[in-house]
Design brief:
Jelly Rolls; ten-stranded mixed beta sheet; 26 strands; 321 residues; mainly beta
């Protein structure tokens, strides 16, 4: 196994041991979502020159100005909140928020929004954004809407075999909401069906070939989609992690399958280049993973597709063994 993540980008999932339901659990670092980085960025004058606030999961601090963000304080978390700069024009998007569960107790709130961009008649477009948090990082400033997965690194080094991903959640599904596609190019499209919020944990065994390509086999899978509004918080929800080829498992759903090549995630190889990670098959049920992916999102479709107003709250993310 080639070490292909540099020391600077090696995001260690530091855990603190706690007791949960009489079983061992590891609380993901910053997984209680009680501390946040607040970024205040002024957009370009051609967009109105307003100051936008972006939230990141990390040590409590405030950053002023249009500065590219990298994970702080050893935080393994990234968000879909981004600072973009296209042809010198600064634009921000924020669909993940710090929200309160009570005095001094915060959580992560993710919502699907339609980001409107209008600049003195030169630009007039809508981009749909689903609020998401995930293990990895975003590379700013974003310079285009093309191939969004190539602008982020998904997953962190990990070598354990948990039984469950546990968390608290709350969901609000807009009544009569429609699924739309809007990438900012061409007209918005209304699509059939409905969207879901989603939470998943994927465990991979990755390796690098002599040409610097990254390959992976799926070791463990835990994935759930949510479609019904809740009456308040659902605490201690558990997603089981199933190992090996799960296609014959009684609970298997098609969305739990291997990641398709045309929507695959990216990571740094040993040369520091961001390249696709191709899932080539299911690994042995007893295999040891090299990387873990966790994501929570207010949508489950492809990029720029979702239901405006869909909102997911999560808190207290941990791994149970």
């Amino acid at each position: 196994m080639i070490r292909f993540i540099s020391g600077k980008l090696l995001l260690c999932v530091v855990v603190a041991s706690v007791v949960m339901s009489a079983q061992a659990a590891d609380k993901l670092k910053y997984g209680d979502f009680n501390s946040w980085v607040i970024r205040n960025i002024k957009e370009s004058s051609v967009l109105g020159g307003n100051t936008k606030t972006l939230y990141e999961i990390g040590p409590n601090q405030t950053i002023e100005g249009a500065k590219a963000y990298t994970n702080l304080g050893g935080s393994p978390w990234a968000t879909s909140n981004v600072y973009a700069k296209v042809m010198g024009v600064v634009k921000c998007s924020n669909a993940v928020y710090r929200d309160s569960r009570g005095v001094g107790n915060y959580c992560a709130k993710m919502t699907t929004i339609l980001e409107h961009v209008k600049a003195l008649g030169m630009i007039n477009m809508d981009v749909l954004v689903s609020g998401s948090i995930f293990l990895g990082q975003i590379f700013e400033p974003i310079s285009s809407t093309k191939n969004p997965y190539s602008k982020m690194e998904m997953g962190v080094p990990f070598h354990k075999r948990p039984k469950y991903l546990t968390f608290d959640y709350k969901l609000s599904v807009p009544t009569g909401g429609q699924v739309i596609y809007s990438s900012g190019f061409g007209s918005k499209k209304t699509l059939a069906g409905k969207d879901h919020a989603e939470v998943y944990i994927l465990l991979q065994r990755r390796w690098e070939d002599s040409k610097g390509n990254l390959h992976a086999k799926r070791v463990g899978t835990g994935r759930h989609r949510f479609s019904t509004s809740t009456k308040g918080w659902v605490n201690g929800y558990k997603i089981p992690v199933w190992y090996g080829d799960i296609t014959k498992h009684s609970g298997y759903q098609s969305y739990m399958g291997l990641i398709a090549k045309d929507v695959c995630y990216y990571a740094r190889n040993s040369k520091g280049k961001l390249v696709p990670v191709i899932e080539e098959g299911w690994d042995d049920a007893n295999a040891t993973p090299t990387h873990m992916l966790i994501m929570a999102s207010s949508g489950c479709g492809v990029a720029y597709t979702g239901m405006v107003g869909m909102t997911l709250w999560v808190d207290n993310m941990a791994l149970e063994y």
